[in-house]
Amino acid sequence: MDLIPDLPNHIALECLIRVPFDQFSRVASVCSDWKKEIKLPEFRRLRKTSCRSQKVIVMSQARVDPDRKKTGVIKRFANPVYRVTLLELDTGHWLELPPLPGFSNGLPMFCQLAAVGLNIVAMGGLDPVTWEVSNSVFVFDFVSGKWQRGADMPGVRRSFYGCASDRDRMVYVAGGHDGDKNALRSAIAYDVEKDEWIQLPDMANQRDECKGIFHDGKFHVIGGYRTEMQGRFEKSVQVFDVATSQWGEVQDDFLEASTCPRTCTVGSGKDFYTSHEGDVLALKRDKWQAVAKIPADVCKVAYMTTWQGKLLVIGCASYGEPHKAYVLDLESNKWKKMESLEKFSGHVQSGCYLEI
């Protein structure tokens, strides 16, 4: 059957791949053939090879009270209410996703976000009303335009764990702490397509408040601390090889300093990046080097990520101030400020990169 009557299918497909990601659900509702086409991996690959894919940052971001004080400072809610927001990097366009089913009071605090194919996964966190640890998993499908409940996270109810996806099918989770504040060594993986959890081998060390990064077929779990250390971060990293399903040896002194690793990210090559004392640091040839001074507007960094030779920093000048976004060109080391609406200037707790 023709995708579009009286048009060759290759021309019809050229039309479909130009549809913006936030219109996928409307296009998919037109007919079953269009819906099937959009869901195919080949459709996403064609969008990418044709330079039609869109680069998006997905964030857990606080709402902003629309009222202003006489001073002009933006009011913040006493108890922040978080929602999922999206920033399209090429256009600077912002939008907000529907709330999670059953969470009318906002996203679970400190929940983790991961991008997988045409889906966004939101998992865990603390109930914004009761502050109980949640093991819930929700999956947003851009084709349906809706959230659906996934299989709950198994085992102990963990918080502040490392999390990352392979962007294709799997989400990896490691470390964090249980309800008694005991740091964890355990690791699990979520198959989004099958809606199933898989138990992984334990890490060598406990890692609370660690950072998860997936790169080059491997899940890196960076930093964190053991139960008895309570907030005194380590500088080590341990890497899980997906192909062999084994953890490598612990690499000590991976980080430049014993600090929270939440801003760690990795570039398209082998270089890792992080923020430290007002600088962007890059790990080049096993040595951390300062490559740029972070603009004063975002010196309190909330979130950082890279894509295609660029680095995004979202932060504020001082705690409680509006959050802004700057992009660093990693070739020229020059910054460019991204414009945003006031309602998208709230604090960012977590985020992930998505090319769709």
Could you please describe the fold and organization of this structure?
The protein has 356 residues and is mainly β. Among the domains are: 1-53, no CATH class; 97-261, Neuraminidase (6 Propeller), CATH 2.120.10. The chain contains four helices and 24 strands. It has helices spanning 9-16, 24-28, 32-39, 41-49; strands spanning 55-62, 82-88, 93-96, 112-116, 119-123, 137-141, 146-149, 162-165, 170-174, 187-191, 196-200, 211-215, 218-222, 237-241, 246-247, 265-266, 272-276, 279-284, 287-293, 300-307, 310-316, 324-329, 334-338, 348-355. The strands form six sheets. The chain has a four-stranded antiparallel beta sheet with strand order 3-2-1-24, with no helix packed on it. Strand 4 and strand 5 form a beta hairpin. 40% of the residues are buried. Residues 68-72 have low confidence and may be disordered. It holds the Pfam family Kelch_1.
